[in-house]
Every structure is written in structure tokens, then in C-alpha cells.
Design brief:
By secondary structure, the protein is mainly alpha-helical. It has 7 helices and 2 strands. A two-stranded antiparallel sheet has the order 1-2. The chain starts with a strand and ends in a 5-residue tail after the last helix.
Amino acid sequence: YNTKEKYLGVEFMINNEDFSKVVHKKCDYYIPKFEEIMENKDKESWNYSAFFFSFSWLVYRKMYIEGFTILAINILVMFIGNWEGVVSILTHFICGIYGNYLYFNHCKKKINDNIDLDENLKNNKLHRVGGVSIFGLIIVFIIVFISTGIYVKYNPAPF
């Protein structure tokens, strides 16, 4: 599948090969989802991984700003008060419904950022900036562990 894009006034083609260089793992899942997004211009589709793991999934897929923003919101709400459950469920559903679209835009941006490069350099760069981040997941788990520890220390259970 190819799609025409405009970048700095120049029209070019993004194809599945470019997307697969950014996605790495699970191309068989994401490429058809991206094709649906491009064909139907539909932002909503269901992603179970994004639903169940929300901010962890975002960080794993190298969408650091989105992932750490949602993590920060969840931690902030945990310390503020009674809305933790509602905010958590809301963020899980938003990630589940819009996760594929967010990831599509993330991949498209990575491709657009490197579109002017020589083909070999572009391929190497897309491979490097794409894929998944185990290191990011480790950072997420450390932040969750520390913030939960602080919360428990200063907010003991009522029993």
C-alpha cells in the first residue's frame, strides 16, 4: 500500500516497506491497521495491548511523550484523590481505541523526518528510531514502583 504525503511542499510516497522498517515487531498486525487508517481515514480501531498496558505500551512502542504524560497523569491523580480508578479506566479505553492511530502517526512522523535522506541512510535511521524500547519499559516500572512506594508510605491503608 502506498500513500501520497506532502513534506515541505514536496509530494512523496510512504509505503508499507517504510512502515515495516519503523514497526519491526508485529508488522503483520500493524501494517493492515495502518492500511485501514489510510483508506478509511478512521481514527478508531481496537488494540488490546494498548488497552491493557496503556502507558507501558506507548513507551514500549517509543511514543515516550504520550506514554510518560499518561503515566504522570495517573501518578498525579493517585496522590490527589479519589479519581484514580476513573482516570485509569479512561486512559486504558482511550489507548485501546486510539492506540493504532497514535502509533500510525508516530511511525509516519519518523518516516517524514527521514524522507530526504539517501535510501541506505534512511533505512538505517528508520531501523534505529523504530522498533520497541525495553529500556523505556524498565524506566516505567521503576517510576511506578517508586511512586507506589511513596504513596503507600504516606497514605497507609485504612485497615
